[in-house]
TrEMBL record, chains A, B:
Belongs to the AOR/FOR family. It comes from Nitratidesulfovibrio vulgaris (strain ATCC 29579 / DSM 644 / CCUG 34227 / NCIMB 8303 / VKM B-1760 / Hildenborough). This is Aldehyde:ferredoxin oxidoreductase, tungsten-containing. The lineage of its organism: Bacteria, Pseudomonadati, Thermodesulfobacteriota, Desulfovibrionia, Desulfovibrionales. Keywords: 4Fe-4S, Iron, Iron-sulfur, Metal-binding, Oxidoreductase. GO terms for molecular function: 4 iron, 4 sulfur cluster binding; electron transfer activity; metal ion binding; oxidoreductase activity, acting on the aldehyde or oxo group of donors, iron-sulfur protein as acceptor. The keyword Oxidoreductase applies. Residues 1-207 form the Aldehyde ferredoxin oxidoreductase N-terminal domain. Its cofactor is tungstopterin; [4Fe-4S] cluster.
Length: 576, 576
């Protein structure tokens, strides 16, 4: 049975323990339960009392397609509430091969203690000095990891932003090619890891073993059906592998919900120039790769190997959200500059959504010109220097930079930046932004499915009807998917395929030797949200915090000229 | 009957109106009622929807001693809640001579509209271009005001910090000598004024008239008794005029509640070197003035003219709080450097408490060395440059700078910095910090009286008993005093003098021709707190926000080794 590994970062000690009260939990259900139980809700997120927990999901370490997502949980230094952020890459599956259910970083050393790499092998845990990895970008760090620990070693690591304790800092993860291009981006978790003076957690899974199955035949049958389901759906089978998530650029822009120039309008004139279609065209012409999975067993393959005109690698994991933040919200029209910005964010270890939008704030404040990709690259580069005060401001996110520059147009909820859908013209995901425990977050309840894509239903994005119910149901289902280790994109297929939930239940039952039913599928997600809501209430969040900024209630968004018109009371109906 | 003057800062228009629903209110009772009624609680504090209101008190413009305090109200960009900050200086009395009860700045122009001076005379209102006053410190601005509007003109003005919209920005007021050394310091109100592109409000009260009295004989008799009361009490009659508020340095340090090195201990070794006694000695030796009132009719005279070794003026309004923030919390041992820091804060237009403590945060982050007064002066000077990112960070206050530098020891409540009394060893004022609507604020309910000074009672500062009741009663009484235009220091005498409240009631009754009783005295303050609590609830504040930071619950404060041990539920008993 996979165990929990507890690591004390002050004493550099470690021990394994049985799951105990965390038995039967995985992914987000484990991380949120542990944070709620073990982290005082009133603590400062960079204090010794905060914990980072990385947990594999209930289907991780199996042959199920798209089951390799790792969940990271802690109290967020950005929102002040509970956070779960999940990521692709190899880390989850290699943790599973070492028979580890979850890894918990506890305590913290003195602020100037040397940075360490924590190395996990089949023989146990050791602490290496990070040495000259300190202060380096994640790409250089992965080169060092390769040299020191072998090409097959994978890592969970922070860049200079996390070392500097900036609230926009991500935790990056290496992909199957050893590139640090996957991210647990949202909520500043990189700063928590930095506060514990951990540069990287490295896994060498040599000699590790695969999980068994309680009922292998049943698992294989369900898993086969599962792969068919994912391949058959147009989004997971064609759209995402063909064009990546940036397929959404034209869709959301046409819908008039593409936030442009710091959320002033819902449509950007040059959006077609920075779309997934254009990116695919360039990659084909230049010798990039249109289609890559971010972990072994991913069959959706929405990632890519994006290259410059000379065919040299620029970046991977190049998402719609990133293209939008720099291209739409910050008005940069050059997709190659945006690709370089994406790579730079991965290298610095910052969330592309948060920091992309912070660039828009900086443009609103006149720090750099609107749409100037080269100036944006120079500005972001400053984040790497802990003594550069402007770099620290930019690396701390939208709410922070807006306060620094006296900007009163601040598109955040619970101090987390809104993502790539203006809630006034996409009201379902707006309900999610307002009410999820995570702060303004699209993945937590991706009602774009029903509002824009006609997946899982068809709900008018511009009206109020049906949005609260849609968001609530999605938030529950998403919390379950996040607990299984499954990539969220499976939801497109699951929402439209009648036997998909039962198929998932069959896989869970067959893996663990339990009777996991569709009722359990709903119950897991509901319990997760209750635990998270309690933590946030104890941390001081109130129904008034489950609301969008005032300017969105007052200012109609072109082209549809819609305002945000949900009251606090109406929104509370989306809570469990 | 004094009128309300409404000024639209976008259109540069103005009109007078009768008090209407604000009749019978003054000072904080007027500002808080107006903010609650006219400012949407969810608005961004720098948006066009916020308003700044300056209101004279119910006893202002009379011959009553110490009745010249002006109250300034708005939604605070620092706390996100309601704010009232009051100040000395000549502004209140000159506003009264123009028969103005309150002045309201509404709306705002474009961010790059030219800065204006709004000039009030007996003939009305006009808008002058601020011209080359833009970007200047308040001392140079007062020279310009003198030149342009005459030596008798007084002003309410912002420095570069307010122009830069920094959340640590104060509003400064000129004293009877034309120096901008008085402040409405707390809560970032200077940024609100800056967002409306107003550099100064200037009053030339030439041709103005004095208020009449409904019953002049009764007023004079009560006013005579009032002056006797203030002169007779040892604090108001001897301690404060003799040594200023810095008389508290040795007292609070002896008591072990003098927060030292970012709230790590309660006692500072060099405190005696920066005490009020030492300051008085220097002023006497060097030819300064130990005793000055901040407005005509002030008989407590706690201010001073502090000079350098050559006898040259450095600063005035040199308070205990400022000496502590730079001298105790930031460990600067040179009282003359601290005086220069006080002057610099007035000149920049920043709150000495907030920014003094931000210097301690900067020292904790290793930006400058602990105790280095010269380095602190250099650091603060950067606030004047809007393009200096480090200056912007420092000028934005404790919570902001702590986040910028990843500091997890953050002594704030509702994002406002704690003042000069560690709540673990001064639990009465700790209850005030937690529960007042103002954020961590000592004046809102100054339980130091009962805890340390044995004024108005004797309550052990280290225990829980009696603190909630004491703080609550003081918060109510203070809200009343703040509505009368009286200087808060009258409270020392009032708490110990049985006929003082009746004397105040006699003055109010005789001025206004009403029957104002001790029950009304209590009712005014209670109503103010209810209005403020409602605004804050609508703005999203919750009982969990009425609490001190976690580290104060965990970490015992030397020398008494006390922790903060009030629960959220216990603290709610201090609310009305």
């Amino acid at each position: 049975m996979p165990r929990i590994l507890r690591i004390n970062t002050r004493e550099r000690s470690w021990r394994f323990e049985e799951p105990g009260k965390y038995a039967g939990l995985g992914g987000r259900s484990l991380t949120s339960r542990l944070v709620q139980d073990e982290v005082p809700a009133d603590t400062h997120a960079l204090s010794a009392e905060n914990r980072i927990v990385a947990a594999i999901g209930l289907l991780s370490g199996t042959g199920a397609a798209n089951s390799g997502r790792i969940s990271i949980g802690a109290k967020s230094p950005l929102t002040g509430g509970i956070k779960e952020s999940n990521s692709g890459g190899s880390f989850c599956q290699k943790l599973a091969r070492l028979d580890i259910l979850a890894l918990v970083l506890e305590d913290k050393p003195e602020p100037n203690a040397p940075l360490v790499n924590i190395v996990l092998t089949k023989d146990g845990v050791r602490f290496d000095e990070a040495g000259d990895m300190a202060g380096k970008g994640t790409y250089a760090c992965m080169d060092a990891v390769s040299e020191r620990y072998g090409k097959k070693a994978c890592a969970m690591l922070i860049g200079p932003a996390g070392e500097s304790l900036l609230t926009g800092a991500s935790i990056q993860f290496s992909d199957p090619w050893g590139r640090p291009a996957r991210a647990a981006g949202r909520g500043g978790l990189g700063a928590v890891m930095g506060s514990k003076r951990v540069k990287a957690i490295v896994i060498d899974d040599e000699g590790g073993t695969r999980f068994g199955y309680a009922d292998e035949a049943r698992f294989k049958a369900a898993s086969k059906r599962w792969a068919e389901i994912l391949r058959a759906h147009p989004v997971t089978g064609q759209g995402l592998p063909g064009f990546g998530t940036a397929i959404l650029v034209n869709i959301i822009n046409e819908a008039g919900a593409f936030p442009t120039q710091n959320f002033r309008t819902g449509r950007c004139e040059h959006a077609p120039k920075i779309s997934g279609e254009v990116m695919a065209e360039y990659m084909e012409k230049r010798g990039g790769k249109v289609k890559e999975g971010c972990h072994a067993g991913c069959i959706i393959q929405c990632s890519q190997n994006y290259v410059d005109p000379a065919g040299e690698y620029i970046t991977s994991g190049f998402e719609y959200e990133t293209v939008w933040a720099f291209g739409g919200n910050s008005l940069i029209a050059d997709i190659d500059d945006i690709a370089r910005l994406d790579r730079m964010c991965d290298d610095l270890g910052v969330d592309t959504i948060e920091i992309g939008n912070t660039v828009a704030i900086a443009m609103d404040a006149g720090i750099i010109p609107w749409g100037d990709g080269k100036a944006a690259l120079k500005l972001l580069a400053r984040i790497a220097d802990p003594s550069d005060a402007l770099g620290r401001i930019i690396g701390s996110g939208v709410g922070f930079a807006a306060q620094a520059f006296g900007i009163d147009r601040v598109p955040t909820v619970k101090n987390q930046s809104m993502p790539a859908y203006d809630p006034r013209a996409a009201k379902g995901v707006g309900v999610t932004y307002a009410t999820t425990t995570m702060g303004a977050d699209h993945t937590a309840g991706y009602a774009i499915c029903q509002n824009m894509l006609k997946v899982g239903g068809d709900v008018n994005p511009l009206g109020k009807e049906g949005q609260v119910e849609t968001s609530k149901a999605l938030q529950v289902a998403t919390a379950t998917v996040d607990s299984l280790g499954l990539c969220l994109f499976v939801a497109f297929a699951v929402l439209d395929t009648p036997d998909a939930v039962q198929c998932i239940c069959d896989m869970v039952s067959a893996r663990h030797g339990i009777d996991f039913t569709p009722n359990d599928f709903i119950a897991i997600g509901t319990d997760v949200l209750k635990v998270e809501q309690k933590f946030n209430a104890d941390a001081g969040f109130t129904p008034e915090d489950d609301q969008l900024p005032a300017f969105m209630k007052r200012e109609p968004l072109p082209p549809h000229n819609v305002v945000w018109d949900f009251s606090v009371e109406e929104l509370q109906q989306a809570k469990v």
